[in-house]
Amino acid sequence: MDDKGSILLQRYELGRLLGQGNFAKVYHARNLRSAQSVAVKVIDKEKVLRVGLIDQIKREISVMRLVRHPNIVQLYEVMATKAKIYFVLEYVRGGELFNKIAKGRLKEDAARKYFQQLISAVDYCHSRGVYHRDLKPENLLLDENGNLKVSDFGLSALSDCKRQDGLLHTTCGTPAYVAPEVINRKGYDGAKADIWSCGVILFVLLAGYLPFHDSNLMEMYRKIAKGEFKCPNWFPYEVRKLLSKILDPDPSNRISMIKIMENSWFRKGFSENSTKNEIGKRKMAPVDIDAISNCSNSSTSDGQQEPEGKQESVKIANMNAFDIISLSAGFDLSGLFEESEVKKEARFTSRQPALAIISKLEDIAKQLRLKVKKKDGGVLKIESSKVGRKGNLAIDAEIFEVTPSFHLVEMKKTSGDTLEYQKLWKEDVRPALKDIVWAWQGERNYLLQEQQHS
């Protein structure tokens, strides 16, 4: 059912592949009745069951059924078979806003238009009790008319997810865009956290680079915690003032959505009427959410007999601030004792769940014909069956939980020849990890080059 040209459940003809991740592929497709272009997200049910992400998918469906707004990607319908889950989504032709910013900072009027549309969409979500929690340029798409569309509600939360203290407690999102109160794990207001992310996005639109960034994760967290950033000299005074109110590290002092929408710089050229006329008009076909997680189909079976996925449990080591500091590049003293060219270990951070990281490492090992042995504490031992110059090559991969949705992975050569290890690492292992890596530890991973601000 994943092949180009195939007919999906007698309703959609699948076209070219638009993108893919660990658990899903997204295709361009055509509605056979109306000839309308759509995007179809094909999710591997067995894989998401195995890593325990089915609740996240159910939540994404629930959220997208609640939100109907011209600046939010519309979910038309959801279908499920024994092996797959299909999201039929609005097809947004213009690609990610991130790609536009990567070419250089935007002019003030263009940045303001996107910010207005973003705030309008996020404010609407909040009015429905929905908090996105992963707002960033990669999750903001552009249609053929250059209008912004918020996508990817996989990490969003509903207001009924709050504890008795009225706060959310799940740490998630992309570190550079995450509010300080989310990082400190003491509970946070989802609306206030989204407002912070919108502020980071506004800065990126106008500057072409991030306000908080450092190759040392702890240093970046320190800057975020203190709200320590500097506006470039081309920022208008009104924007500087607005950003200082949005990127206030104290959520109780942070500006509200209402105040942002009353701001004089924000209001230039802003029309609420056209948005209000579109809100609520869109309809979605009813969805049997429970059919998503079991083997009974909510449409027609694709005939595949796949075993019901088992949710495994794995023990992962927790990391406190001191653990992170000791692993951070700024505190790494190994360069005093060894040549950088012959490093026998590497570390990377990932936003994937621990089980997804383990699944990826096992897939890589299988492709490279390496044996995998599980050890306690989230350690995988990956071993070559071939005897090399200095015996069998072995690599230990250890996973540390920084927050529930943010992990640090350390991969270390434990036996075998160093040159053989480096060849395997550079040519095979590292390239295969790119899908799950957020950043390599100790390397400058600027998503947006600061050269544009000179």
From TrEMBL:
Gene3D superfamilies named among the record's database cross-references: Kinase associated domain 1, KA1 (3.30.310.80), Phosphorylase Kinase, domain 1 (3.30.200.20), Transferase(Phosphotransferase) domain 1 (1.10.510.10)
Reactions catalysed: L-threonyl-[protein] + ATP = O-phospho-L-threonyl-[protein] + ADP + H(+); L-seryl-[protein] + ATP = O-phospho-L-seryl-[protein] + ADP + H(+)
Keywords on record: ATP-binding, Kinase, Manganese, Nucleotide-binding, Serine/threonine-protein kinase, Transferase
Protein kinase domain mapped to chain residues: 12-266
Keyword Zinc-finger: no
GO biological-process terms attached to the record: signal transduction
Domain of life: Eukaryota
One Pfam family it belongs to: Pkinase
Binding sites annotated in the UniProt record for ATP: K41
Residues of the NAF domain: 314-338
Cited InterPro entries: Kinase-like_dom_sf (IPR011009), NAF/FISL_domain (IPR018451), NAF_dom (IPR004041), Prot_kinase_dom (IPR000719), Protein_kinase_ATP_BS (IPR017441), Ser/Thr_kinase_AS (IPR008271)
GO MF: ATP binding; protein serine/threonine kinase activity
EC number, UniProt record: 2.7.11.1
Record carries keyword ATP-binding: yes
PANTHER family: CALCIUM/CALMODULIN-DEPENDENT PROTEIN KINASE KINASE-RELATED, CBL-INTERACTING SERINE_THREONINE-PROTEIN KINASE 15
Family recorded in the similarity comment: Belongs to the protein kinase superfamily. CAMK Ser/Thr protein kinase family. SNF1 subfamily.
Name by which UniProt lists this protein: non-specific serine/threonine protein kinase
Protein's organism: Iris pallida
Source organism phylogeny: Eukaryota, Viridiplantae, Streptophyta, Embryophyta, Tracheophyta
